[in-house]
Amino acid sequence: MRGKHIKRISKLKKKNGWLSIVLFLLTCIAAVGILVYALVIFVNYLLITKLSTECEKVLYLSSVYDESEGEAFSEQVLKLIGDSGAEFIIRDAGTGELLYGDVYNTCDYEGNSASDFRGDYPVIFYNDTRYSFISIDRTGDIGFDWAGIRKIISELSDDDLDEDLEGYDPSDQAMDFAFSLGSSEQVRLPIWIGTKLDDKDVFFIGKGYVTINIGDLMFLVIVSGVFLVLFTVIFLLFIVNMVGNIRSQARAMKLFFFDLVTKGHNRMWFYYNGEKILSRRRNASYQYVVVNLFFAKYNTFCLCHSVSEGEEILRTIYKKIGEHLKKGELYAHGNPEEFMLLLKVTNQDHIVDRLNLLIKELENIEGSINFTYHIGASVLLPSRDRDGKIVRRKDIDLEIEYNNACTARGTIPSNEGSSIAFFDVKLVEEKKWQDQVEAHAMEALENEQFLVYYQPKYDPITQELKGAEALVRWQSPEFGFIPPGKFIPIFESNGFITKLDHYMIEHVAKDQKKWYDGGYHCVPVSVNVSRAHFIEEDLAEQIRDIVDKVGTPRQLIEIELTESAFFDDKNALVKTIDKLREYGFKVSMDDFGSGYSSLNSLKDMPLDVLKIDAEFFRGDNAGERGRLVVAETIKLAAALNMKTVAEGVEQKEQVDFLASQGCDLIQGFFFSEPITGASFEDSMKARKANKY
Ligand code: C2E
Ligand code: CA
Ligand code: CA
C-alpha cells in the first residue's frame, strides 16, 4: 500500500487545515470583488446618466448660440442664455482668448475630447480647477480624480465653508457650489463641457453639475459600511476560530505521536516519518534496515520490581537508543517491551556490528542484571509486489517491514540470550501457512479431516505384530494431504494441540473398541500426547474418561510423551504418569536420546516403555559408537523394568542388531510405514509380518 501512514495522517491534518482557510479567503475575495464591481457599475451608471443630461443641456445651448447670426443678435442670444441661469464661457478656437464669460471661471481648459454618452456627439470635458472629482478620458471611460475628491471631502468637513457662507452673495456663482455643499441635501459637483462651433470658430463651454443626493450617498455609504463591518467581524471570527483549530490540531498531532511511557515518540510517529524518509531517499550507497528491539526480561523485571521501575528502565533504554542513532535515523517506542528503529547501513556486516554495539550499550545500563535483548532486522531491499513489479520507495509500507522485523525476532527462542535474527521471505511464507492452518483447524476437527494412521510395532524375533503408534494426518479439502510435521508445531504453539490429542485418543479408542468387539487380535496402540497438554492437572482423568466413554479396555491404549516434556514441572509429570498407570494405561517416553539429560529423567520417571529415537539409526550415529549407546540403553531400560521400542528402523541389519540386543519392539519403515486404519485392520488379521 502506498505510504499508508503518510496518507492516513496527511488526511487527518488536512481536515481542519489550511485548505479551508484558503477556500474561505478565496470566497471572501470573490464576495468583496463582486460587491465592488456592482458598486462601480452602479455608480458609473448614475454618473453616465447625469453626465449625458448635462451634455445635452450644453449642446442645446451651444446650438442656440450657433444658430444666431450677426454680432448684435449673437450678443442678445448670449445674454438670454446667461439669464436662463446657465453658466458658460466662449473661447476663441484659434487663440484661446476668452470671448465671453460672465461667470466665476474655474475651467482648467485642459480637456479631453470624448463623446456625449447618448448620441456619440463629440464633446470636450474639462475639469473644474476648484472641485474636480471625475475625469473622462478619450474613450469616454469615467475615472475618479482622487486628489479632487480628497479636497472636496476636506472642504466638506472644514470650517472654511462656514466662513465662506458668512459673506454669501447669491449672485456670486463661485459660492453656489459651496452653498450646495452646505445645504446637506445635495452635492453638486461641477464639470465643464465644451463643444466646438466651427462656423463661429469658437468653443462653447458650459458648466454642468453632477448632482448627488446626500441622502442617497449616505445610504450607500451606510450600507457599504455595515456590510464591511459585518464582513470584517465574520472574517475575524473565522480567522480566530481557524487559528484555534490549527493550534488544537497541532496539539492533537503531538498527542497522536506521543508515547506516554518514554515521553518520546510512538509507533505512529515512526511509521509516518519513516515512510517520509524512505520516499525521499535518493542515494543507493546505503541501505535502510528496520529493527524490532525486544527487551526480553521486561515482564520478569516488572514482576520482581514494579511496573513503574520497569517503565523507568524503558525510558533509559529509549534514551540510550537515541544516543546511539545517527542523523537521518529514527527510533520510537512500540509495545511495552519493544522499540522500533530505522537505521542507515552500508552492508549486512555493518548492521550486525552496529546492533551488537547497541546491545552491549544496553546491557551495560546501570542496574541491569542479565538483561537480554532480542533483535529482529529487516533490510529494505528493493522488493516486489504480487505482480512481480518492484515496489517504489514511496510505496513502501513501513508497518509491513516492521512486522517482518518482528517475525524475524519471533524466531529467536524466548530463553536465548541477546541475539539478532534477520528477516527472510521464507518466514513470511511460514507465517502465512501458520495463519491458514490456524484459521482452518477447528473446522477440520469438526469435519473429521484429521485421519488416524497406524504404524505397526513388531517383535524383531517372532516378527509378530505387537503394537502400533497412532499418527495423525490432515486430509484438507483446501490444502490436500498434510503430514503432521506441518501443523503439529503450530498447534503446539497456539494450544490447539490439546484438542487434537483428545480427538486422537477418542478416535483410536473407537477403532480399538470396534476391532476388539469384532474379535480381532488387538494390540496396544500408543497415542502421542503433547507436552503442552501435560501441564493440565487432570490430564490422566481426561484420558480415562474419554476411553471409558467409548468403552475400550484401557490396556489397549498407551500414552507417548516426548522427552522434552520431562524438563517441565517434574513432580506434576510424575503424578500424572502415576495416575495414568494406576488407571491401567501404559506410558512411554518418546524420542529417547534426542535431547539432553535423558538418563537423568529416566531414573525418576515410572515409565513402562522407552522409545529409542530414530536418530540413533541415522548418519554418524549409525556406526559402532551409536550401536554401543543403543545396546547400553536397552540394557538400562531392562534394568529399570522398561520395555524398549526402536523407532525409525529401515534396514535389516538394524533389526538383527536390535534383536540381538534384546530390543522388545521395532517400529520403522523396514516393517511398515504408517498405514490407514483399514490397512492396519488387515495387518491384525495376518498377525504376523511376512517381510522377514
Ligand atoms: P514421532 O512421535 O516420533 O513419530 C514417529 C515419526 O517417525 C512419524 O512421523 C513416522 O512416520 C516416522 N517414522 C517411523 N518410522 C520411520 C522410518 O523408518 N524412517 C523414517 N524416516 N521415518 C519414520 P510422522 O507421522 O510424520 O510424525 C511426526 C511427528 O509428529 C511425530 O513424531 C509426533 O511427534 C508428531 N505427531 C504425529 N501424530 C501426532 C498426534 O496425533 N499427536 C501429537 N501430539 N503429535 C503427533
Ligand atoms: Ca511418538
Ligand atoms: Ca518418536
Structure description:
The protein has 692 residues and is an alpha/beta fold. Helices cover 48% and strands 20% of the residues. It is built from 21 helices and 23 strands. The strands form four sheets. Strands 14, 15, 16, 17, 18, 19, 20, 21, 22 and 23 form a ten-stranded mixed sheet that branches. β10 (330-333) and β11 form a beta hairpin. The chain is rod-shaped. Mean pLDDT is 85; it is low at 161-168, 177-182 and 688-692. Residues 590-591, 611, 647 line the site of one calcium ion.
Concise synopsis of the structure shown:
With 692 residues, the chain is an alpha/beta fold. It binds ligand C2E and calcium ion (2 copies).
Low-pLDDT parts are: 161-168, 177-182, 688-692
Strand content: 15-25%
Q: How many helices in DSSP terms? A: 21
- In helices, the fraction of residues equals 40-55%
The total strand number stands at 23
Shape: rod-shaped
Query: For the report, how would you describe the main beta sheet?
Result: 10 strands, mixed
Rg over alpha carbons: 53 Å
Instruction: Name the average pLDDT.
Output: 85
Bound molecules: ligand C2E, calcium ion
Q: Given the helix and strand composition, which structural class is it?
A: alpha/beta
- Rounded to the nearest angstrom, the distance between the terminal CA atoms is 63 Å
